[in-house]
Amino acid sequence: MSKRTGSAAANGAVAKETIEHSPAPYDKQKVLLSSETGHFSLIRAMHLADLITELNGLCGVMSIFSSLRYCLGDPTSLGNIYAALAFLPFGLFFDFFDGKVARWRNKSSLMGQELDSLADLISFGVSPAVVAFAIGFRTPLDHLCLAFFVLCGLTRLARFNVTAADIPKDATGKAAYFEGTPIPTTLGIDALMAYWVSKGWIHEAIPGGLWFADTIFEVHPIVAMFMIHGCLMTSKSLHVPKP
């Protein structure tokens, strides 16, 4: 071994020892979350961006409740179904805003990442499926197709959480692209359903009609758009540039 090689090895050993014995960076959020004592430690651990993410989830939950109120009321009274659809763009606003705040304050965290995915699943996965149910997608096969869509969204978000660190990022820490279509693109389907509601194309008048009526295979063929969107979300080869 040459002196140069030996010196490099020695320096490497010293550096390794320094890294191994250097204290871990202080993470206030992690300390608060793992603490067994302290009042409201979960609330105190949340960053501003996390609170904004909660508002995204709130919009999704309120959309679901509005759809349920529509199902329990007069089907010709459309106020609640319009409210269910209107909450979803607000969810998108908070979804964009929490990321900007996290980068601005340099306060991104694993908890924030998990919160963001869970809120997105509610607002852009479960809520649109419930709206679809409310306006007339109510056959067993419709339900299976809508469930497939929601599970694709769930799987896509779980994959993102696992692979987010491997996606190229710019100087601000923002990912360069999405793997598969991002789940908020479901707003395109929401806009289409809002158009149907405005035209009265709901329940028995859903575009495409009902196939195989009065059989166990009865289905609204237009529900396939949810399944196609689900497949696009879970695509690995489709890279959508981030705006």
Description:
- This protein has 243 residues and is mainly α.
- Helix content is 64%, strand content 2%.
- The protein is built from 9 helices and 2 strands.
- The chain has helices at 3-21, 28-34, 41-45, 48-72, 79-105, 110-135, 140-163, 187-199, 224-233, and strands at 177-179, 239-241.
- The protein has a two-stranded antiparallel ribbon.
- α5 (79-105) runs antiparallel to α6, α6 (110-135) runs antiparallel to α7 and α7 (140-163) packs parallel to α9.
- It is globular and about 55 Å long.
- The model is unreliable at 1-26 (pLDDT under 50).
- Pfam families: CDP-OH_P_transf.
Low-confidence stretches: 1-26
Q: What gross morphology would you assign?
A: globular
The number of distinct helices, counting runs of at least 4 residues, comes to 9
Proportion of residues in β-strands: under 5%
**Pairing-aware structural class of the strands and helices?**
mainly alpha
Rg is 24 Å
| Count of strand segments | 2
Task: Give a short synopsis of this structure.
With 243 residues, the chain is an all-alpha fold.
Detail the topology: elements first, then pairings.
Blueprint: H1 3-21, H2 28-34, H3 41-45, H4 48-72, H5 79-105, H6 110-135, H7 140-163, E1 177-179, H8 187-199, H9 224-233, E2 239-241
Antiparallel strand pairs: 1-2
Helix pairs in contact: 4-5, 4-6, 5-6, 5-8, 6-7, 6-8, 7-9
